[in-house]
Amino acid sequence: MSNNKIPKIIGASLPNMPWEDRPSDCADAVWRSAKNPVIGRYEIPISNSIYNSAAVPFGDGFAGVFRVDDKSKNFRLHVGKSMDGYKWDIRSEPIEFDRGCILEPFIEGYDPRVVKLDDRYYVTWCDSYHGPLIGIAYTYDFEKFHQLEYPFMPCCRNGVLFPRKIGGKYAMLNRPADMGMTAFGDIFYLESPDMKYWGNCKYVMGPETRSWQHVKVGAGPIPIETTEGWLLIYHGVWLNVNGYNYCMGAAILDIDEPWKIKYRTKPYLLAPSETYEMVGDVPNVIFPCASLHDADTGRIAIYYGAADTVTGMAFTKLDILVDFIKSNSL
Ligand code: BMA
């Protein structure tokens, strides 16, 4: 370790979280589940693919919001429940949001994140309203979902809320985009007094030339509060003659001023190398959107979309990951 203090997760115990020890022949800081892909593409009758999805502890088990692309290639959000975090009962019907005074019809929803904040579970996702932009809704029970007014103008993706207020304000990471495949991408920080009006925008981080993250970066799971700062797992994209390649990296952000990067991985943590990551509707994509973690043991389970088709899971421990990030920082 770079210092003698063992890093700790600041948060709840989660003794029932899914977990697999690092295989004895693996020296990597992040390792895949032996059960991958944990969610297949045809898990429900209408699905073409289930990936880039979010999970949180709920009741005795877990609840999630899943990106389901159906066989007409509509992108929709579906609720799922699980007792063990591996085997999910995903509803066949997409979420019908109570949309209040939003005038336009719901067109599509993808890449959800879910966070417990105050007494509610907030869902953010990429919506479609004259371009891609962030949708926000909340639920108490994963039955009724109340959509809030759009927080920003298009175009942006990867809206990721922090799990508590920072400096007395709600906080979100966000990435400006364009109407298409977006050949750029930097992460920004925004804050809000009320989940309605967002501002005080600050730059967090962007692509790095000559690397696996040279085209764009985007926030992944909800940041994890630790004694070292906010642990942000993110995706980075590089471009080659075959197109975009999405890998997983991580950064540690200042706890009070999260737009300040303390450390950030130079090498990737996970790159598409298993068949289900390299072959699918969009080959060579690892896209993390959620994590479960246990403050007592430092265990972290990461859910990621693989090849825009199926869902994989990977594991790490906070001390191993922090040591790797610090020892391999840009
Ligand atoms: C991004 C998002 C993700 C997708 C990725 C790779 O722009 O649309 O949903 O996983 O592209 O196709």
Q: What report would you give on this structure?
A:
With 330 residues, the protein is mostly beta strands. The protein has a single domain (31-327), classed as Tachylectin-2, Chain A (5 Propeller). Helices cover 4% and strands 45% of the residues. It contains two helices and 21 strands. The protein has helices at residues 275-278, 318-327; strands spanning 31-32, 47-58, 61-70, 75-82, 89-90, 109-117, 120-128, 132-139, 146-147, 156-161, 170-176, 187-192, 199-205, 216-219, 224-226, 229-240, 243-253, 261-264, 286-294, 299-306, 310-317. Strands 14, 15, 16, 17 and 18 form a five-stranded antiparallel β-sheet that branches. Strand 6 and strand 7 form a beta hairpin. The radius of gyration is 18 Å and the shape is globular. The model has no long low-confidence stretch (mean pLDDT 97). Beta-D-mannopyranose binds next to strand 6.
What's the structural blueprint in terms of helices and strands?
Elements: E1 31-32, E2 47-58, E3 61-70, E4 75-82, E5 89-90, E6 109-117, E7 120-128, E8 132-139, E9 146-147, E10 156-161, E11 170-176, E12 187-192, E13 199-205, E14 216-219, E15 224-226, E16 229-240, E17 243-253, E18 261-264, H1 275-278, E19 286-294, E20 299-306, E21 310-317, H2 318-327
Beta-D-mannopyranose binds near residues 282 and 285.
